[in-house]
Task: structure prediction
Amino acid sequence: MVTGSAPDDLTTALAACAQGDRTALRSIFDREAGRLVTIAERIVRRRDLAEEVVQDSFIRIWTQAHQYRPDRGSARGWIYAIVRNRALNLLRDGRREYTVEDVEGLRERDQVDHVMAAWHRLDRTSRLHDCLGALDDTKRRGILMAYIGGYSHGEIAGQLRIPLGTTKSWIRRGLSALRECMA
Result:
């Protein structure tokens, strides 16, 4: 198995996992675990829970690798979606315990500003930056809050002060426009 940095390597590694190749899973872990923990930590806001999310996610990656279809999206996107969904499920299940520091540290405005800063840090010559820039501000914020910040649709609706149904449809239409632009 090739272990370089091309996107096809993750696709190859997932196919190998589906065939029972443990070294392929290790390769995915070595390449992606650090970033995955960071993403999970942004959502659950605790390092120990983020590590638990990533561990659970790798079990799911191992057992569900046969379900990955390259024609439906990138391997990296599939893996990251598993981590994001596991982190959100952890929050929804109520398994997260808040500490005093967590409660004091939860400043929604700062979190939203952090999410928007991620967009501004994108390479300005990248296609993704151009495509996100083509969206109106509210749709762009909604997509970034969902996929960078890990906010639920309800949290996004509250932050943007728009109805939940509107939030869902804007995110869906924004993602459709992004796919079209990126194609």
Q: What stands out?
A: Residues 7-92 form a domain with the Rna Polymerase Sigma Factor; Chain: A fold (CATH 1.10.1740.10). The chain has two domains: 7-92, 107-182. The chain is about 75% helix and 0% strand. Confidence is low (pLDDT under 50) at residues 1-7, 98-108.
